[in-house]
Amino acid sequence: MTKKRAIVFSGGRLNEEDLHQIQPDDFIIGADKGALFLIEHGITPHVSVGDFDSITPEEKEKVELASQRMIACDPVLKDLTDTELALEIAMDEHVDHVLLLGVTGTRMDHTLANVQILVRAMQHHISCAIMDAHNYIELTGSTLEIQPMGYTYTSLLPMTSEVTGIQLEGFMYPLHNATLKMGQSRAVSNKLTASKGTISIKSGLLLVIQSKD
Predict the structure, then answer these.
(1) Are 47 and 67 in contact, with CB atoms under 8 Å apart?
(2) Cβ atoms of residues 111 and 81 within 8 Å
(3) Which of 104, 127, 204 is nearest to 158 (CA)?
(4) Has keyword Nucleotidyltransferase (predicted)?
């Protein structure tokens, strides 16, 4: 069975290179300013969602006319961020994977909130990743395979108070049944040395960040 993927363009840092991530069968969601970005580059979102408080009324009308469907919500009354709303829509489409673009940027509060969204996706048994020009971020509670993607480093950060039974294969600095506790940085800036790497854990949630300068 072919896996179904949603790709979300949110209102953070986006560039034209991000458009190259779109695959023919992707379900495309534009969140707030991310929807305008898509439309201005000739891409029709399947759904545009958000409070649209970061664009002008004229731009909002442009988004509404150019989207297959638009879901606008009140910026005061809503309980979820625009990116969370986009993830909810993706999950309603019963996708297997969600790629989040434009969810990092100058607003650290939004960036960290979006990283935590990966937990919500995992709770719904959906794989989810965040990608920007310098990072590819995933979350695992079991086993994760790392493929070479042009990133220099692979770093591991616990998302729970501790992560146990960490095993690394295919990396410069292997780990064997290791434990990482919140606040420790011993697993930062590792490097892939094999054609692929494998990360497995026994308990906890582990954030895996591939990055480059």
Answers:
(1) yes
(2) no
(3) 204
(4) no
Query: 143-146 and 197-200 as β-strands: parallel, antiparallel, unpaired?
Result: antiparallel
Whole-number pLDDT of residue 185: 86
Q: What is the mean pLDDT of residues 77-99?
A: 90
> Taking the CA of residue 18 as centre, how many other CA atoms within 13 Å lie in the half-sphere pointing to its CB?
29
Q: Which residue in the block uniquely carries the two structure tokens 């591991």?
A: 156
Backbone torsions φ then ψ of 16, nearest 5 degrees: -60, -25
Q: Give, in degrees to the nearest 5, the angle at Cα 117 between 188 and 45.
A: 120
196: tokens are 């692929």
With contact defined as beta carbons under 8 Å apart, do 104 and 82 qualify? no
| Token digits of residue 163 | 């992560």
Structure tokens at 201: 């854990």
Report the predicted TM-score, pTM, of the whole model to 2 decimal places: 0.94
